[in-house]
Amino acid sequence: MNADINTLENYQSDKCWHGLFQRPEELKQDSTNSLPCNEILHGDCISVMKGFPNSSVNLIVTDPPYLVNYQDRMGRSIQNDVNSDWIKPAFKQAWRVLKDNSFCVSFYGDTHIDVFMSAWKEAGFRPVGHIVWPKTYASSSYYLARHHEQAFLLAKGYPQKPQTVLPDIQEWAYTGNKLHPTQKSVDVIKPLINSFSNVGDLVLDPFSGSGTTALAAKQTGRNYIGIELEDNFVEISRNRLI
Ligand SMILES: C[S@@+](CC[C@H](N)C(=O)[O-])C[C@H]1O[C@@H](n2cnc3c(N)ncnc32)[C@H](O)[C@@H]1O
After folding, report:
1. Of 100, 16, 23, 93, whose CA–CA distance to 52 is shortest?
2. Which residues form the domain of 158?
3. pLDDT tier at 73 (50, 70, 90 boundaries)?
4. Which residue from 24, 76, 96, 151 could staple onto 107, CB 3.0 to 4.6 Å apart?
């Protein structure tokens, strides 16, 4: 897949035009097609995605709660980080709205890999790779000092081999978590979007947090949809994307 924003002649940064969907003016007139574009949506991603058409997004890059009841030094916690009821219905919807022969990259909590993997497989995803980001610092320490972040590369169908094949060990960048307790760096997400989608594609993050995936999509010439439960993170991401 092509990473270069300058190579696509008909790319229009101000419009939701990714070659696969109707243009916004037409979208407004067509009540059967309720796919938003270049927006951060406020709500529970399960119900929000239920409103999207089948096979409508080109790539999902997401960082769901890890089920670890995380609390940072400032006492900030994450919604849905304790119960796991949402995982299966969320990934079922994610699989439905993703186009055939496309990728989903999902970070996950490794202490609950069984829960994540059964949700992914039950939804229909095939794990096709695993990415690790070594960290110079430990994000927590108990039985082990945790020096890495991790994500699975999941496939719906049989996507084409990317033009740029990424090493499955990737460089980490620390954000300082100023906008969100588990904020990922845009520089960590951009290589994933570049490798697993094309310029003008639509990238979805159902667990959008501070909007990192959306910003990375925008900066790489893709369209985006972010979905976030907490209103303060919705506001933060919308401001980030202006
Ligand atoms: C691990 S954080 C994502 C952080 C993000 N990668 C960033 O860089 O800011 C997961 C986010 O999912 C949100 N969330 C949890 N359950 C959700 C749901 N059912 N629908 C939408 N968002 C949800 C949480 O509020 C949290 O902000």
Report:
1. 93
2. 35-240
3. confident
4. 151
